[in-house]
Request: fold
Amino acid sequence: MAYETLIVEIEDYVAVVRLNRPDALNALNAKLMSELAVAMSDLDANDKVRCIVLTGSEKAFAAGADIKEMSEKSYVEVFTQDLFTNDTEAMLRVRKPIIAAVSGYALGGGCELAMMCDFIICSDTAKFGQPEINLGVVAGIGGTQRLTRFVGKSKSMDMHLTGRFMDATEAERSGLVSRVVPVKKLMEEAMAAARKIAEKSMLTAMVVKESVNRSYETTLREGLLFERRAFHALFATEDQKEGMSAFVEKRTPQFRDR
Ligand code: DAK
Reply:
């Protein structure tokens, strides 16, 4: 399917979704958000896709929600339209792993979108921020909640209250990103990680994703029970038999997602 604001490519069971509004630093307008929701749902249902990489341009992953589009809206409009709710929930419904490959600006909604992915690999030029306070608003698609869980209360308050940007080194040190790589190697590294994930059992990868995400949703005791039951349940799969037999027989496992 062709999109106006996205470029989607699939190769070796990895889908790359590139935000593509270069003139606006990939600002998230209604069109982009609705296309992203459709693209993500389609890729989740596509048998030729086992991992998704979400990225932008070298200058900007996304510079936030489209301020020009938002600026004229009234309270009644944003409330009744429930701005972006359905589209962001579509992102969260994706069961396959999603890696955010971030270069340049990831600000406001852009930072929030990266945090909705399963992990973030960024370039050494990345800049993260929640500068909504400069516009007289607060983050609206998870920034105050997710950034706080990634980096802790003190740094999250600092970012949201001052509106300052965090560079790649600080982002890695604070636990916001999993790795920092040279800007020219960003896609190579993200694709290598995605291909590695694509080789695993898709079934198991989905269970891993659900289990880790569970840690954000529940108490430690309930989370541990969820994980243990998930571990037990995987013994009902052919992939568990194959993975363990392959180890014992000193060969590479051939997973069949069963
Ligand atoms: N929206 C619209 N256009 C943007 C934009 C944005 N967020 N960011 C950049 N652009 C546009 C610029 O207007 C400019 O367009 P022209 O003037 O050329 O037409 C073009 O992109 C290039 O930008 P600059 O000329 O400004 O480029 P610089 O390199 O000088 O500066 C910058 C880059 C990223 C530092 C600067 O553009 C900037 O500060 N941008 C705004 C960053 C920002 O404040 N982001 C947060 C936006 S608020 C919610 C859902 C979502 C949200 C809230 C609620 N609900 C569902 C409840 C999210 C809110 C936000 O994200």
Notes: The beta strands are 6-11, 14-19, 51-55, 60-62, 98-102, 105-107, 119-123, 127-129, 165-167, 179-181. The longest strand covers residues 6-11.
